[in-house]
Structure formats: structure tokens, C-alpha cells
């Protein structure tokens, strides 16, 4: 069941009463980290949104200077429902794709891993559907685009407490003020423009769909239609048609203005429109348009409630010079994950800012995106996307059945419909499989009642059924793989078996599933219990845990990408883990890992393991490892590389690590660190 926005607005206000060392001045905490830009920074545009919809703005508060941002962070307007597909090549689809067979202990199992001889179809299935940028809203001066040299004296601030972006600048020397916000329960942007400059107006421009990072094709005017379907005194409705995909847009304003369509895909209001809203919808629009004043009030009310409830961390009493920066990252990560990762489907790695991997979401990242919400007293924000799994359960069952397995096998890279995307790597990942079980259990810990159990029971049971069937009984023990690729993706699927993290995750998730059966009054499944009991031991060599059982070169040739063996004791409770072996593994990772070739969630993951082992100095040091992948921008985003300019799993991982460090494991060093917290829950139950 997908949760409605109304449920989100009500439920998100329910925080936890737990508090340490007195009340925190939450407004002061939040506002001291309001992002402020004093010049154009194409790597750090600011966004407003609500989890279902987001709008990313330049320093004008709108999208007036798109060319300056195009190669860094494109200025997009995206939603959970806004997808587009090119026509299929020769009318073919997934059923026409030839699979590559992998020997699975004498049984051939097909995977969509090879493009050879079918490149066109393979690539089409990867790129479609792709997330769409719904439109661009920018300022014009005398009906012409403004230029970089026209803009000066920039002072832009994102007021986190109210969810409002205020942009002050000069345009050809004249002062301009733009305020921008997003309605908390509608796909609606609102803005107010103040200026005495004559000839200042807005324009709406609409692109064709694209799988590229900017989610826009501005060079194919003939492939889509923009229809001004209604044009009244203060409201205009626009219908959009892109191949078989359609949506509607409503522009509403105060003052006198008339709207005309200019060229193929520009909507241009003339006259006074100093306050306006622009609302997008896949189907019918709400009967009454929202005004600027109404949207602004709703935004402030929503964000005041968001920050006043749930978790908070105050490090202002710390003397360590890194404390202020860590606190900034934590505050901004709460905002960014709320507007980017709290929708009715799992988020893509770049949320609703711009496209990564064609706009599709990676389910192995869902835990990092959303596990922190219950830990920060905001379980409802996880439940919005967790309900998506039930909606695609038939697709996951069909995939498992096609491969000869029981239960449901979750895809790796997918979209709203749940179809997996061909990939030489993604098709063979398995660590996304236990995620729905672990996430559902976090929800149960927050709401331990029958309703929670019934809501997720089918997803939990079908996930576990596949996991037990995937394990192979060999020589008195159960093994995982081959074929498989672990979380650390730099391994040959035909030569990989028994990765440390996946073994531990299999054991823990099957145990959780059995507990759910008991809570529901159901008998335990003997096969699940047998797999747990006889699952292979975690692989060890030279006193440290290995990436997988067939990887003696873990710390020499394979010491890059995710050091995922650490997650077995930090992310997970660590059943079957030897603490001292894990401690030696942690120290070896800190010494020998190639940190420039890691990812943003690796640093918090290492911190979690260090905290669990009682090494708080190392936990904090891990959060500040010097690596390009540990870059945190002024807007709070975790930069990774040129084509991945933000990485929300890094933000979510930080929040998960902080909740763990603050609540249970003394993860902050004594002396220079003073951590005051409210409303946080520990991740682990041990």
C-alpha cells in the first residue's frame, strides 16, 4: 500500500520523547545552518520540495540561468510520477531479451547481463522509463533570457525552519527579491517577485524527455506537444503530451496578466504576476488552485512541525573544530532526505534533483536512503516508500519464478513498475533482498502492533522465502553463490561465494522473518531455520574478515569500493561475528583501504563499526576521512564525481551513524565532544 501525503503530514509530526541533558533550542540549531550563497555556485544550487516533488533553483530563486548549471547540477523540476519512455525499438520488450545463463551448482539460471548482439534492446531497457524534468521556470527581462553578467550582489539564503528560499540580487543594477517555496502536500511551486524593474517576467519552458542527467531534451520540439488548454484571468492550464506519457500544469497568479504560448513549448505571461504558483499533476489537478500566500503558510507550518518533532543533535558545546561542520551536515541531511527521499517510491541516488542512472532507483541503496527515518522519530517517512514493495510483489515473484526460485526476488535498478534493468553487475547483486525485512522491522519497533505486521507480512515472508531458496546446501553447509556479486561490486560473479556482509545479513533477516511469523501466530519455517543454523561461517584469513570466501587478496588487490565486511558488525547486530577479528579488520581497513575509490556511505558505515567496537575516536575520524567521495557542499549534498554531483545515500548513512553513535555506543569521544540529543532511537537491538 502506498501511503498518501495526508498520512505523511499527520504522522510525520509524531516524534519520540526520549531526551538527554535537557531541551535543545531547535530553531537556533536549525537556523545556524541555513545555507547562504553570496555568488553563483553551479555545484551547489538549492532545492525546495516535499518528498514527492522538488524544484532546484539557481541564485535567482528560479531556473533563470540554466546553462551555467547544465554541466554541474542541472536545474530540474522532478516528481515521483514524472516518467517518460521512448518508443520501444521494433516494438520489442523485456520478453525479447536473451538471457545469459550462469551455472548454479549444475542448474542454468538466466540473467539479463549481456548486450552482445542485442545492444539496441538492452540499452533501451536500461534507459526506459527515465525520469522527466517537468518544466523550467525562469525570469526574463524584456522577454529575453537573463545573462550571467546581468546578475550581481547575490545574497541567497534557504530558511530551513520555514522551508523558504529567499534570493536577493541585482539585475542590470536594479535590486530584485524572489521568495520560493513548495507546498507540503501538492506538486506545487510558489514564488513571489519584488522589483521595480520594468520588463521583468517569468516563462515556463517544456522539454522532451531524456535519460540524461538533466532529464531534458531541448532539441526535439517536434516530438512532444504543449497545449494551452485553458486561459482565464488569473489561471492558465497547460496539457503536455510526450509519446504515450501525459501530464498537466496549472499556472496561477495574482494581479493582471494574460498568458500566451510562444513557439512550440514556451508559456509566457504578460503583465503583473509578482506572485504565482505552478502546479503539476499526472492526472486531474485539484479543483482549486493554491495561491502564493496559502502555499507559503502551509510550507512554514509543515517545516516548523518537522523541525520541532523527531530527532535533534546539538554539538555546540564541543571544542573539537570538526563539530560545527558535522552538525551542519546532520541538519542539512535531515532537510535533504525529507525533500528527496521521503516519497511514495524508493528514491534514485540523486533524489528529485537530477537524473542518475536515467532517474531509476537502486534498491540496494534504499536502506541507506531511509533506514534513518525511524531512528530520528520519523517512521512515517520510511513507510511512504516501503509500501511500494507490495505494489510490485507480482513482478518480483515472476522474476524469482523465471529463475527457478521460490518467493520474490527484488530488482536492483528499477522504476515505479518494478521491472529490473539489464546490467552486467546489477542483475547479480543480492544485498537488496533482505532490505524490506530489515526496514519493516524498524517500522515494527516504532509501532509494535498487529497493523504493522499485517501491512508488511507478505513482503517479509516472500523476501525470506527467496533468501532461503537461494542458499545452496553443499557438504553440510549452506553457501551463497556463485553466481553473485556482493555489495563490493569489483568481484567476478562466477568466482564469488559467501561474502561476509551478505552471509551475516541472510542470517539476521531470516531470523527477523521467523520472529514475524511468531508475532503473527504462525509456525516457524523449518527450511529457514535450517539455513540459519547451517549457513557458512564468515570467512577469515590471517585474523581478519575477507570480502568473500574466495578473496584472499581482499586487502591487497581488492581494497577499494565498499569495505562491506565491516557492515556485519554495525549495520547488523553481528550474530556469528567475533569482535576481535572485526576489530582487526577495522584497523586493517583504516590502514590499507584506497579511500579515493570508495563511496559516500562507506565513511558512516566505518564509523558505525568503530562505535560498536568502542572506538569513538576512530568513529569520528572515519566521518572525516580525506577523500573526494567525502566532499560535502554548501547545500549539504555529498559530491561523488562529475556525473554524480550529489549522493543521498551518503546523507542517509550519516544520519543512521549519528543516531547509533549518540544513543547507545558512546560513539563520540569524551572531552572535546559534547553531544546533546533528543528524539533519537538506536539502530541495533542488542
List keywords for this structure.
disordered N terminus; nine-stranded antiparallel β-sheet; alpha+beta
Condensed summary:
The chain is α+β, with helices and mostly antiparallel strands and 686 residues long.
Describe, in plain words, how this protein is organized in 3D.
Helix content is 30%, strand content 21%. By secondary structure, the chain is of the alpha+beta class. The strands form 10 sheets. Strands 1-11-12-13-14-21-18-17-16 form a 9-stranded antiparallel β-sheet. A 5-stranded antiparallel β-sheet has the order 10-9-15-20-19, with no helix packed on it. Helix 1 (5-11) runs antiparallel to helix 9 (379-386), helix 12 (435-446) runs antiparallel to helix 13 and helix 12 (435-446) crosses helix 14. The chain starts with a helix and ends in an 8-residue tail after the last strand. The model is unreliable at 1-20 (pLDDT under 50).
Number of strands: 31
- Rg: 25 Å
Unreliable stretches covering 5 or more consecutive residues? 1-20
Which strand order spans the largest sheet, edge to edge or round the barrel? Answer: 1-11-12-13-14-21-18-17-16
> What's the helical proportion of residues?
25-40%
User: What's the average pLDDT?
Assistant: 94
Number of helices: 19
The fraction of residues in strands falls at: 15-25%
Major beta-sheet overview = 9 strands, antiparallel
Straight-line distance between termini: 31 Å
What is the overall silhouette? globular
The helix/strand class is alpha+beta
Amino acid at each position: 500500500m502506498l501511503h498518501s501525503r495526508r498520512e505523511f503530514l499527520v504522522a510525520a509530526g509524531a516524534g519520540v520523547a526520549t531526551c538527554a541533558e535537557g531541551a535543545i533550542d531547535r530553531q537556533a540549531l536549525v537556523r545556524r545552518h541555513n545555507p547562504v550563497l553570496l555568488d553563483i555556485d553551479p555545484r551547489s544550487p538549492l532545492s525546495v520540495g516535499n518528498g514527492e516533488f522538488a524544484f532546484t533553483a539557481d541564485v535567482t530563486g528560479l531556473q533563470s540561468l540554466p546553462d551555467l548549471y547544465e554541466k554541474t547540477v542541472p536545474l530540474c523540476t522532478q516528481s515521483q510520477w514524472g516518467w517518460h519512455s521512448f518508443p520501444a525499438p521494433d516494438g520489442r520488450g523485456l520478453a525479447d531479451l536473451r538471457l545469459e545463463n550462469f551455472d548454479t551448482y549444475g542448474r542454468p539460471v538466466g540473467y539479463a547481463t549481456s548486450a552482445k548482439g542485442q545492444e539496441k534492446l538492452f540499452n533501451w531497457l536500461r534507459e526506459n522509463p527515465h525520469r522527466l524534468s517537468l518544466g523550467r521556470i525562469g525570469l526574463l527581462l524584456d522577454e529575453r533570457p537573463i545573462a550571467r553578467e546581468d546578475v550581481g550582489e547575490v545574497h541567497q539564503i534557504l530558511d530551513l525552519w520555514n522551508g523558504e528560499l529567499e534570493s536577493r540580487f541585482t539585475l542590470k543594477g536594479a535590486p530584485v527579491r524572489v521568495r520560493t517555496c513548495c507546498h507540503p502536500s501538492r506538486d506545487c511551486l510558489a514564488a513571489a517577485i519584488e522589483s521595480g524593474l520594468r520588463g521583468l517576467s517569468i516563462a515556463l519552458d517544456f522539454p522532451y524527455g531524456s535519460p540524461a542527467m538533466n532529464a531534458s531534451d531541448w532539441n526535439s520540439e517536434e516530438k512532444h506537444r504543449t497545449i494551452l488548454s485553458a486561459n482565464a484571468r488569473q489561471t492558465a492550464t497547460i496539457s503536455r503530451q510526450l509519446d504515450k506519457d501525459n501530464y498537466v500544469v496549472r499556472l496561477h497568479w495574482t494581479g493582471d496578466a494574460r498568458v500566451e504560448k510562444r513557439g512550440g513549448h514556451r508559456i509566457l505571461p504578460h503583465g503583473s504576476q509578482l506572485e504565482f504558483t505552478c502546479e503539476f499533476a499526472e492526472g486531474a489537478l485539484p479543483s482549486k488552485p493554491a495561491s502564493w500566500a496559502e502555499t507559503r503558510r502551509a510550507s512554514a507550518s509543515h517545516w516548523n512541525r518537522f523541525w520541532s518533532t523527531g530527532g535533534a543533535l546539538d554539538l555546540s558545546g564541543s571544542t573539537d573544530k570538526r563539530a560545527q561542520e558535522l552538525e551542519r551536515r546532520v541538519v542539512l541531511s535531515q532537510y535533504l532526505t525529507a525533500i528527496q527521499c521521503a516519497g511514495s517510491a524508493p528514491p534514485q541516488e540523486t533524489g528529485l534533483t537530477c537524473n542518475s542512472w536515467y532517474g531509476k532507483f537502486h534498491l540496494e541503496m534504499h536502506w541507506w536512503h531511509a533506514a534513518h527515518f525511524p531512528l530520528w522519530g520519523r517512521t512515517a517517512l520510511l513507510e511512504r516508500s516501503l509500501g511500494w514493495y507490495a505494489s510490485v510483489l507480482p513482478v518480483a515473484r515472476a522474476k524469482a519464478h523465471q529463475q527457478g526460485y521460490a518467493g520474490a526476488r527484488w530488482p536492483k535498478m528499477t522504476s515505479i513498475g518494478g521491472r529490473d534493468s539489464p546490467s552486467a553487475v546489477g542483475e547479480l547483486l543480492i544485498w537488496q533482498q533482505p532490505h524490506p525485512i530489515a526496514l519493516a522491522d524498524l517500522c515494527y519497533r516504532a509501532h509494535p502492533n498487529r497493523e504493522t505486521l499485517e501491512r508488511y507480512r507478505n513482503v517479509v515472508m516472500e523476501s525470506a522465502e527467496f533468501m532461503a531458496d537461494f542458499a545452496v546446501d553443499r557438504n553440510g553447509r549452506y553457501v551463497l553463490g556463485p553466481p553473485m556479486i556482493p555489495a563490493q561490486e569489483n568481484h567476478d560473479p562466477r568466482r564469488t561465494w559467501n561474502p561476509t556482509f551478505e552471509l551475516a545479513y541472510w542470517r539476521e533477516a531470516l531470523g527477523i522473518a521467523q520472529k514475524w511469523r511468531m508475532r503473527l501466530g504462525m509456525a516457524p519455517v523449518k527450511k529457514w531455520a535450517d539455513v540459519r543454523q547451517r549457513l557458512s561461517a564468515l570467512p577469515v584469513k590471517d585474523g581478519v574478515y575477507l570480502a568473500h570466501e574466495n578473496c584472499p587478496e581482499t586487502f591487497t588487490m581488492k581494497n577499494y569500493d565498499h569495505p562491506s565486511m565491516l557492515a556485519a558488525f554495525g549495520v547488523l547486530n553481528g550474530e556469528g561475528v567475533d569482535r576481535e577479528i572485526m576489530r582487526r579488520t577495522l584497523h586493517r581497513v583504516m590502514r590499507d583501504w584506497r579511500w579515493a575509490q570508495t563511496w559516500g556511505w562507506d565513511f558512516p558505515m566505518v564509523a558505525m563499526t568503530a562505535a560498536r567496537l568502542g572506538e569513538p575516536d576512530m568513529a569520528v575520524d572515519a566521518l572525516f576521512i580525506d577523500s573526494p567521495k567525502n566532499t560535502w557542499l554548501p547545500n549539504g549534498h555529498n559530491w561523488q564525481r562529475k556525473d554524480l554531483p550529489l549522493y543521498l545515500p551518503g546523507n542517509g548513512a550519516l544520519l543512521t551513524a549519528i543516531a547509533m553513535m549518540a544513543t547507545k555506543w558512546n560513539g563520540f569521544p569524551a572531552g572535546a565532544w559534547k553531544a546533546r540529543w533528543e528524539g533519537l532511537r538506536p539502530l541495533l537491538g542488542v
